[in-house]
């Protein structure tokens, strides 16, 4: 049964239409066919006028039969957008700060300007930073020490971030550093402080280094520029200066540990890349594009397209399913011509990119849907038969593509830098072509220097292939739930199905008992992932983007061995993704063991050791009704109470703002009720620090967890001041003694909350915040004590002089986590209440909660309380609006140093992830489990991982950019 007949009766699923319209449709376009018509016409516009109609039909036929041009082509071809059709570029960076070198290499800031223009036009950029002199190297002109490549990477990172905020497409970047660069260790760990978030990172590893790892030898870290203080005999015969020597296995272990725990850096086997390069005779490659499937020279580009392999399977799931290799070759031929046309059709951000592309005419045709095609052919992805099939597909695609490019050379001419002897020399990719093809190339030349590249396909596989498995990857999950934000701000959910799974169900298959050839990514051993790449790589002249997803408990030694095997197998690079084991990943949910993880030995038995959660809590910030003060253009009511003590202390007023919210009665009718959402204090004589306490408590008032708010008020009501006070309490003005101002404030706020009914039927209310606490009561140190991080705070304007202490706990995975703060010295005693509040916030699993609290306090001002103080972690000073603001900055900095929050106060990777659910119920899971990762830009859950080379949220199904 032909696949096109089956697909005619299979309607598109909602996710396909959504992504198509969001990402690729223009004007009135609503179907893949309409987009393909536009793109086909654009591709044909560079043909001879008399042949444009014919070729528009050919290109449309190819796209209707499985050819999917890359995302930039589908989104911009045939439109009036001033954007490039090229997905990614590699751009050079020299060692100079300004201007250009004699060979045209741009200095650092010239390269920055070029990158900005490229990203502004929609292209991602890869760079090799190895030419930049190391930290501490001699700068002759000023006789000073260099700051090193990582410092300049931060400049590029901020530039990309600015461009990203100004446009709709993420500005993807790849940063590469050679393994023999003296700053390689700094590079490997550079993202641990939360910076460089707009970079993917890869180490360019040489054969010499890998050999040293294999034999446990020493390895020299070198550079062309001499150290500031050069020692005798430090310069080698090749002219490079030896900065130091390191045990190769020690450096390799640093790279592997970082990759194992943080999914970066990736590894590029750069000598293999250059040895395999068809243009090794006229160029040298040092970097890749952001997705890693194209290793490119300076100003090189990715002109990409993919063939949907599911469109060539006849009789899927039948007795004798077959792959139509003849039609596959025909579609390949038309696709190569289409991609060659893109090079003449596109807008080029820089003239250097235009010149580079025209001299070599690189294109990158690959395939997508391999995992689904194998399932349709009833082959397990991890079987030898599957690898043999994939190898045959890659060889067929290569031979057809190279043959087509020879025919194009006859018609249009070979690429200008073609040299037959150099091009066909061993061990270049072209040297492995069939003898007949090599003879044709030698006689007629070839139009395109490179033709093959298997890229991550991300949203184009969803929009144009019915959510087929991406690129070379197996299916990630058979179903998942996508949460979609509607125009009115509400959310709706719908199910998303893998293409092969959906097709199987459509054809009458029993999805409750899937056959064993339905093999998902996490069912496959990591080595079998790598073996699939190794089976295909010999036929791919550029590279393959493949992400090996491994389980959190995958043994480190096996993980490390995977990379060594990849090098020995001749791969050009390897990328893995393992859920980060920072905070969330070490917490389990409903596991089979009832044992509770041990707390550190220096903590006594009074600690609440609840590190095993009985359900999956949501991200803490999702419990907020409003992250900030709601916009109420009509105004709102505020309840106020004047605080007057009997001992003559200053009077001040407490305000509690409230608004109405709808509530559903048991009979289904809708009513409204008043809820408190903020509190503040007023009066020039208010106790110092009480305003900051009220500001922090307002965020708790906006939480949908009333038990959490009550817990906060309970803690505050026990806070003692220097002396107790007597005051009139609402509602009748009865005199009462309170331990201090903070306690009085808490009890007055509690009174109003009770009056509004906030604590009625408390046991029936949801408790998302309380559920998200690591422990409810503070762990108590035993006789051995515990460690605290301390910092001195001096504000001459207010005569504050005290020590801030941050008590820290070491979790079972070795991660340090702040859990309490204290003050000692001369400070407003009201701040003890603030410390109590923030200490409770620190015990929430999701560190985004404490991060947002502290960010809000950074702007807290105080009359006549501003002062100069050093910026934490930097060699400069600035004016801080109050003692409280500086205290918040110091705590934020400590979280940054510990690798938990970035410089913006947001969680780094798994640091903000919550607990991971148990693997699955009995039987094989159809729906993917939530996996800890980065914060999702759509739903905010820390479940944003790399899947099929692209970013994907395992919580809401959001598909992010590739690279």
UniProtKB/TrEMBL annotation:
SUPFAM superfamilies documented for this protein: PFL-like glycyl radical enzymes
Assigned keywords, A-Z: Cobalamin, Cobalt, Deoxyribonucleotide synthesis, Disulfide bond, DNA synthesis, Nucleotide-binding, Oxidoreductase
E.C. number(s) listed in UniProt: 1.17.4.1
Catalytic activity: a 2'-deoxyribonucleoside 5'-diphosphate + [thioredoxin]-disulfide + H2O = a ribonucleoside 5'-diphosphate + [thioredoxin]-dithiol
Stretches assigned to the Ribonucleotide reductase large subunit N-terminal domain: 17-81
Function recorded in the entry: Catalyzes the reduction of ribonucleotides to deoxyribonucleotides. May function to provide a pool of deoxyribonucleotide precursors for DNA repair during oxygen limitation and/or for immediate growth after restoration of oxygen.
Domain Ribonucleotide reductase large subunit C-terminal residue range list: 88-577
GO biological process: deoxyribonucleotide biosynthetic process; DNA biosynthetic process
Entry similarity comment: Belongs to the ribonucleoside diphosphate reductase class-2 family.
Any GO molecular function: cobalamin binding
Name of protein: Vitamin B12-dependent ribonucleotide reductase
Essential cofactor(s): adenosylcob(III)alamin
InterPro entries found in the cross-reference section: RdRp_reductase_class-2, RNR_lg_C, RNR_lsu_N, RNR_NrdJ/NrdZ
């Amino acid at each position: 049964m032909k696949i096109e007949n089956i697909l005619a009766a299979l309607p598109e699923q909602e996710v396909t239409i959504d992504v198509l319209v969001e990402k690729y449709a223009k004007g009135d376009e609503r179907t893949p066919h309409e987009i393909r018509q536009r793109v086909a016409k654009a591709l044909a516009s560079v043909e001879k006028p008399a042949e444009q109609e014919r070729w528009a039909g050919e290109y449309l036929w190819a796209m209707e039969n499985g050819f999917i041009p890359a995302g930039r082509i589908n989104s911009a071809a045939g439109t009036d957008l001033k954007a490039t059709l090229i997905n990614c570029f590699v751009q050079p960076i020299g060692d100079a700060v300004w201007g250009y070198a004699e060979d045209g290499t741009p200095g650092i800031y010239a390269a920055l300007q070029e990158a900005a223009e490229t990203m502004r036009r929609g292209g991602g950029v890869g760079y090799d930073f190895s030419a930049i002199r190391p930290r501490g190297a001699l700068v002759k002109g000023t006789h000073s020490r260099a700051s090193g490549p990582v410092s300049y990477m931060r400049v590029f990172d901020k530039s990309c971030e600015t461009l990203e905020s100004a446009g709709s497409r993420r500005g993807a970047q790849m940063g590469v550093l050679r393994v023999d660069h003296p700053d390689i260790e700094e590079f490997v760990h550079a993202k641990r402080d939360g910076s460089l978030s707009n970079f993917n990172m890869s180490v360019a590893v040489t054969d010499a280094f890998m050999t040293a790892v294999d034999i446990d030898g020493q390895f020299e870290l070198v550079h062309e520029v001499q150290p500031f203080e050069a020692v005798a005999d430090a310069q080698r015969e090749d002219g490079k200066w030896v900065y130091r020597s390191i045990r190769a296995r020690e450096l390799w272990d640093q790279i592997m540990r970082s990759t194992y725990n943080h999914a970066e850096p990736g590894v590029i086997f750069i000598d293999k890349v250059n040895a395999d390069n068809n243009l090794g005779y006229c160029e040298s490659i040092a970097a890749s594009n952001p997705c890693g499937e194209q290793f490119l020279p300076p100003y090189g580009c990715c002109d990409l397209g993919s063939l949907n392999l599911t469109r060539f399977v006849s009789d899927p799931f039948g007795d004798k399913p077959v792959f139509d290799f003849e039609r596959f070759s025909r579609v390949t031929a038309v696709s190569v011509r289409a991609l060659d046309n893109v090079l003449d059709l596109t807008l080029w951000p820089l003239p250097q990119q235009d010149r580079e592309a025209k001299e070599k005419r690189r294109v990158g045709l690959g395939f997508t849907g391999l995992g689904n095609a194998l399932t349709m052919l009833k082959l397990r992805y991890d079987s030898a038969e599957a690898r043999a099939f994939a190898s045959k597909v890659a060889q067929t695609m290569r031979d057809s593509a190279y043959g087509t490019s020879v025919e194009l050379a006859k018609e249009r001419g070979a690429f200008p830098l073609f040299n037959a002897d150099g091009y066909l020399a061993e061990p270049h990719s072209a040297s492995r072509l069939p003898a007949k093809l090599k003879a044709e190339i030698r006689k007629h030349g070839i139009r395109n220097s490179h033709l093959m590249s298997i890229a991550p396909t991300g949203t184009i596989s969803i929009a144009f292939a019915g959510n087929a498995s991406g690129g070379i990857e197996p299916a990630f999950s058979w179903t998942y739930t996508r949460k979609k934000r509607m125009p009115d701000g509400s959310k709706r959910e719908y199910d998303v199905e893998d293409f092969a799974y959906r097709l199987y169900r459509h054809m009458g298959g029993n999805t409750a008992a899937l056959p064993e050839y339905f093999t998902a990514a996490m069912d496959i051993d990591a080595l079998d992932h790598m073996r699939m790449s190794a089976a295909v790589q010999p036929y791919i002249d550029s590279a393959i983007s493949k992400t090996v997803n491994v389980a959190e408990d995958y043994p480190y030694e096996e993980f490390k061995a995977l990379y060594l095997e990849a090098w020995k197998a001749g791969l050009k690079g390897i990328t893995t993704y393992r859920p980060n084991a920072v905070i969330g990943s070490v917490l389990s949910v409903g596991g089979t063991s009832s044992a509770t993880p041990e707390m550190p030995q220096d903590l006594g038995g009074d600690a609440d050791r609840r590190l095993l959660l009985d359900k999956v809590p949501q991200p803490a910030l999702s419990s907020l009704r409003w992250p900030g003060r709601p916009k109420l253009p009509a105004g709102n009511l505020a309840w106020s109470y004047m605080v007057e003590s009997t001992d003559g202390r200053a009077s001040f007023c407490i305000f509690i703002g409230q608004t109405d919210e709808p509530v559903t009665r048991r009979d289904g009718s809708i009513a409204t009720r008043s809820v408190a959402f903020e509190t503040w204090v007023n009066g020039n004589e208010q106790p110092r620090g009480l305003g900051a306490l009220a500001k922090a408590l307002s965020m708790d008032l906006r939480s949908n967890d009333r038990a959490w708010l009550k817990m906060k008020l309970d803690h505050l009501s026990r806070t003692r001041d220097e002396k107790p006070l007597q005051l009139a309490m609402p509602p009748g003005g009865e005199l009462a003694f309170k331990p201090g101002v903070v306690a009085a404030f808490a009890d007055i706020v509690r009174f109003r909350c009770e009056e509004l009914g906030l604590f009625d039927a408390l046991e029936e209310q949801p408790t998302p915040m309380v559920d998200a606490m690591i422990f409810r009561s503070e762990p108590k140190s035993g006789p051995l004590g515990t460690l605290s991080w301390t910092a001195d705070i001096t504000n001459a304007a207010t005569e504050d002089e005290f020590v801030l202490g941050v008590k820290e706990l070491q979790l079972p995975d070795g991660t340090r986590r702040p859990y309490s703060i204290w003050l000692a010295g001369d400070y407003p005693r009201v701040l003890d209440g603030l410390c109590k509040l923030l200490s409770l916030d620190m015990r929430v699993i999701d560190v985004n909660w404490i991060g947002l609290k502290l960010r809000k306090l950074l702007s807290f001002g105080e009359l006549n309380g501003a002062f100069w103080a050093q910026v934490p972690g930097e060699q400069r000073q600035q004016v801080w609006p109050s003692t409280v603001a500086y205290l918040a900055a110091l705590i934020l900095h400590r979280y940054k140093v510990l690798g938990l929050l970035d410089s913006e106060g947001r969680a780094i990777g798994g640091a903000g992830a919550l607990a991971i659910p148990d693997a699955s119920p009995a039987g094989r899971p159809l729906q993917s489990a939530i996996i800890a990762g980065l914060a999702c830009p759509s739903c905010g859950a820390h479940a944003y991982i790399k899947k099929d080379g692209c970013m994907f949220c395992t919580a809401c199904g959001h598909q992010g950019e590739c690279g």
